[in-house]
Write a structure and sequence with these properties.
The protein is mainly beta and 91 residues long. It is 0% helix and 51% strand. The two termini are 24 Å apart.
Length: 91
Amino acid sequence: MFSRYRPEDAHRLGLNIGFDIRYELHGEQAYRFTRPVYVGDTLSATTTLINAYEREGRHGGVMTFAVLETEFADEGGKPVIAERQVTSSAP
């Protein structure tokens, strides 16, 4: 999220979960706002792997799913946004 503002050494998902981008699918994404975000706000983010699981694919094979949650906080450390994302990958 917000790749334009991400440090260059940071992984595009916030952490490296080992998925090959060529086989990665974006499944679901939701946001929960604690308060509005204003021009001039400086936010920091922490991404956590909440869950990982596997399911049989429709055409055979196994798909791996990762549920990631990113918490955005303002300069005072107060929560502003929580993002939940489901990403999947097949070998």
